[in-house]
UniProtKB/TrEMBL annotation:
This is Glycosyltransferase family 4 protein. InterPro entries: Glyco_trans_4-like_N, Glycosyltransferase_grp1. Residues 98-226 form the Glycosyltransferase subfamily 4-like N-terminal domain. GO terms for molecular function: glycosyltransferase activity. It comes from Plastoroseomonas arctica. CDD domains: GT4_ExpE7-like. It comes from the Bacteria. The lineage of its organism: Bacteria, Pseudomonadati, Pseudomonadota, Alphaproteobacteria, Acetobacterales.
Amino acid sequence: MTAPLRILMLAHNHPDLQPGGTETIARNLFRTLRDTLPGLAGLFLAATTGAQREPKPGTLLQAAPGGQADEALMWLPHFDRFFLSQADTQGLGMAFGPLMDSLRPDIIHIHHPLQFGLETIALLRRLAPRGAKLVMTLHDYFAICPREGQLLRADGRLCTGPSLDACHHCLPTRPASDLLMRQLAIGQAASLVDALVSPSHFLRDRFVAAGWDAARITVLPNAVDIRGAPAPHRALPDGGRRDRFGFFGHVNRFKGSLLALDASARLSAAGVAHGLALHGGAAHQSSEFLAEFKAALAAAPAARHHGIYDAAELPRRIGAADWVIVPSLWFENAPLVVLEAFRHGRPVICGDAGGMAELVRDGVDGLHAPIGDAEGWAATMRRAVQEPGLWDRLVQGIRPPAGLDAMARQHLDLYRALLRRPTPARRAPRPAQQRQPEAA
């Protein structure tokens, strides 16, 4: 009989404190593995800061929300977002030493270097039991884009990858030495990992173009909880149209909330009846952005902001929408909102590039709109409202997304395959800073 695995899973926050996509995927994967493998020993360890929790004297470790014995928090406030570096290396060592001695994991799965820092990868490699394997999921472009991982240039244009000149143009106050040191540190940390996971082919290809080894990156798609009945489609009055749009996600500049409001305002000015509901909080946004959002909301008479929501509320809120829109200004990777929309039978309108366009098939289960182009978005939304039979045809084309059990099985297969073979020679990604990326 195969012995149960021992797994340590790290995420840069806990979804009960910060309900982001990476945190949700990481925790769902861990919990599903625990249900799939009776007797599995493991710990889900989420970073936290003073934004969510106060420190506890004498330790970085805290109990996680919900009271789960196999979930914990690690308080890590001293983080440098540019260098992805955690300054409290002494605290890391004091916390991880006893933890690793107690758990002795076979698999250590890191879902993001944010908060933990690249130092944690090196520390875990050193403390890991002989034969243990390290896995890291590349949930976004932080490792190749020093501008908050957005792959967006300073002028708002999409960037296809790093180069010294282009990165310096986006971050003119950073000397070239900082950019190069960042890349070298990330490459060294990545070389200590036994396998890299990407939720999309698009993200994998961006990393390969930046010099990362394609053979080390496995594409394992994200998944959502498919238990329970999907939200029924909205009942239409006689002669009614499928003209209700829903935005679900954090309200910030990069997610495209201002673009959505601009497109809605253009539709209203053209006399196109519709509704736009924005669902999501706006925590940690600048006063400048919040002022812009308030003004844009006031200028879009058909739009309403319904505020933050939790997972249990999603079916009710999505039930009022005919279409789910993903107006992000950046490439995205594999946004969960698309999978949630398909889970509930809603066609998706999204940007025409990146991981979101990989998930949404234009004219089959959704529509593509030009990224960052409010006029183009208004035209696409107008088509969605006015083209006869379009909504019904796209609904018929939706493929239900995979469930969490399927995602857990794929990861389990990867873990077991890694444990059957010796640790391969590790090679840092080759420097790609001298290439000038082409404009998207």
